[in-house]
Amino acid sequence: MLSTYKYPKYAYMQAPEVAENRSGHYPVVVVGAGPVGLAAAIDLANQGQAVLLLDNDDTVSIGSRGVCYAKRTLEVLDRIGCGDEFVDKGVSWNVGRTFFREAEVFNFNLCPEPDHHRPGMINLQQYYLEEYLVARAAALPAIDMRWKSNVVSVDPNGDKVTLRVDTQDGAYTVTTDWLVVADGARSPIRHMLGLDVEGKVFTDRFLIADVVMKADYPTERWFWFNPPFHPNQSVLLHRQADNVWRIDFQLGWDVDPEEEKKPENVLPRIKAMLGDEREFDLEWVSVYTFQCRRMRQFRQGRVLFVGDAAHQVSPFGARGANSGIQDTDNLAWKLKLVMDGKAPATLLDTYASEREFAADENIMNSTRSTDFITPKSTTSKTIRNAVLGLARDYTFARALVNSGRLSVPSFLVDSPLNSADEDEFAGNMLPGAPMDDAPITTASGTPWLLGALGNRFQLLHYVEDAATLPAATARAMQQLADAPVPVQALIVARRGTAPAGLTTLIDSHGRIAERYDMRPGTTYLARPDQHVAARWREFDPGKVTTALARATCNA
Questions:
Q1: Suppose 551 and one of 192, 417, 427, 517 were both cysteines; which one would form an S-S bond, judging by CB atoms 3.0 to 4.6 Å apart?
Q2: Cβ distance 432 to 413 under 8 Å?
Q3: What's the CA gap between 349 and 347, in Å, rounded?
Q4: Alpha carbons 523 and 367: distance in angstroms, whole number
Q5: Is 264 exposed, middle or buried (0-12, 13-18, 19+ CB in 10 A)?
Q6: Is residue 34 within 8 Å of 184, Cβ to Cβ?
Q7: Would the pTM count as exceeding 0.85?
Q8: What is the residue-averaged pLDDT of the chain?
Q9: At 78, phi and psi to the nearest 5?
Q10: What residues pair up with 109 in beta bridges, in sequence order?
């Protein structure tokens, strides 16, 4: 038990299949009610899709586990309807500092630009995230949540997947058109299907110690190499909610994990770091090993793997839950279009290819971080320490310091869903890019661009004065809303109001024009997951239709 958190107990309900002695069929089943499975179910339900969500437990995760949630993940949580609670409870931060022995050698700012809705990172214990997601899911009638429901067999067979589910009242069978697997790093379903993850397990161990204490340290990420209180190893410090502080101690490989978790071994390490005068209580302890691995293919026919079930990385860089939630962000709109018959099933192949690319990117960065943090030879450690020694005074060395490259969204520039640029643009908002936020003014009161985007294809068209939009252009944009895959047109302007049927976004600070290199006529096609699909210097409904077909595999 934790002193700062009371675990909820979610009610088990007898499945109708057991009560009525029958099997059931559901269009989509999600297995695993951790952050990733919950996000997938909520995203689908927000789009009107009924979902069966199964979990073998009846509470949230034990221990704080995941801690750091990146700006892009916060934007996804906003889109699915539970960002505010999470941010309000969490600890916001942008600045990280790296120390060598006792001296600071490097620092960074995750969000140096003004006028972004969310900070670079929020620190919050994973059990809070899961609790907020469960509450959001419970508010959506389209989600049937079943606790204490353990999937014991999976049989993909042609046009459906058959699952056997064990409960305290007996087992039952359900079939589904699509199975989303979010059952964690050990993924029983992955093993049932004879699938494996490939990659590397690093020969080092780290101790997680969550402590409750009142401290006036800045709300920043602090990372030490070879500090005097933990010689020849590394230490990481993060603040969480409820005055809980996360401390990670590098242990080395030749230790006994069970011995290291004992209070008589943990407490002296913490006291050496904080000093004898600092009062604290030990909240939670765990020992973990670095892994950088993934499945070869995230899509297995009608079975779709997301989160840790599909890929695992070392925790430095906060790439675990962040990348998993971004998996579901990529998957849900594609699966919904396929289920509605508005896109071919090959669209789901692009879920696999785009997120496999993102996983490879995460694994590469995580591996580099791990190699720098835990050098495996005397030579590599000597080079590492030399870099740290030079970083305080030399810019070139700071670029080589790697205490965990933090999670950032992937730029899907090679995606087959993109339409190539025909015109010249400056900046980063190229096809495949995750879209930047910016402040806006709207009639509905939505104050941020990303708050006006998402869950559908949308067009951004820039004019200085929305009232001057030509009538023919307005009609053509309005007609896009009646297409088989509808596109909502948003008029970005410095002033004025667009004709009825179109939404006006006032670029109140000029940030949209700046970040998207917009001038009168500039038009962007945005995907439902807030990535750029295409862009042009002039609005052409034919080109928009062609780009939309490409972005949905209908070309």
A1: 417
A2: yes
A3: 5
A4: 39
A5: exposed
A6: yes
A7: yes
A8: 95
A9: -60, -45
A10: 95
- Whole-angstrom distance, CA of residue 80 vs CA of residue 454: 9
**Residues 136-162: what's their mean pLDDT?**
97
Amino acid at 135: A
User: In the chain, where are the structural domains located?
Assistant: 16-88+123-196+294-365, 449-551
Residue 174 pLDDT greater than 80, yes or no? yes
Tokens of 538: 């002039």
Report DSSP state, residue 436.
Answer: P
DSSP symbol at 516:
T
Residue from 253, 243, 249 nearest 273 by CA = 249
Candidate from 19-33, 271-285, 361-375 with smallest mean pLDDT: 361-375
Q: How many angstroms separate the CA atoms of 533 and 457, rounded?
A: 9
374: three-class secondary structure by DSSP: coil
Cβ pair 327, 415 in contact under 8 A: no
Cα 117-136-238 angle, rounded to 5 deg: 55
Whole-angstrom distance, CA of residue 92 vs CA of residue 238 = 11
**Amino acid letter, 525:** L
Residue 99 phi, psi dihedral angles, 5° rounding: -120, 145
Sole residue written with tokens 């899907």: 412
Distance set, CA 68 to CA 94, 246, 261, 320, 464 (Å): 11, 11, 23, 10, 40
* Percent of the chain scoring above 90 in pLDDT: 86
Closest CA to 436 of 511, 383, 493: 511
> Residue 368 in 3-state DSSP?
helix
435: phi then psi, degrees, rounded to nearest 5: -80, 135
Please give the torsion angle defined by the CA atoms of residues 88, 31, 45 and 170, in that order, rounded to the nearest 10 degrees.
-110
Q: Which CATH class is domain 449-551?
A: alpha beta
- The closest alpha carbon to 494, from 517, 464, 474, belongs to 464
Q: How many Å apart are CA 324 and CA 357, to the nearest integer?
A: 13
pLDDT of residue 317: 62
The first and second tokens of residue 275, run together, are 């000093």
**Predicted confidence (pLDDT) per residue in 293-327, tens digit:** 999 999 999 999 999 999 998 776 677 789 999 99
pLDDT at 4 over 90: yes
